[in-house]
Automatic annotation (TrEMBL):
This is DUF1659 domain-containing protein. InterPro entries: DUF1659. Pfam families: DUF1659. It comes from Secundilactobacillus kimchicus JCM 15530. Residues 3-65 form the DUF1659 domain.
């Protein structure tokens, strides 16, 4: 049986104030059926935990076929 699964990739760009360099973090399959609020909350939490400044966040959904 084939089911359509959506894989979510969350890409967060943080900024390190000390070294003045961007830090890119990508996470796969973090949020299924993501909303703007969920993405923003996750990214802001990540920035708080790392002590870096949130610069940009982007979530993409890629449809793939998986056989179960």
């Amino acid at each position: 049986m084939n089911n359509l699964w959506k894989k979510t990739t969350l890409t967060v760009i943080l900024h390190d104030e000390i070294s003045d360099k961007p830090v890119k973090k990508s996470y796969g399959n973090v949020i299924q059926g993501f909303s703007t609020d969920a993405v923003d909350t996750f990214a802001q939490g990540l920035a708080t935990l790392t002590g870096l400044t949130l610069d940009h966040v982007e979530a993409t959904n890629v449809s793939t076929m998986a056989e179960i």
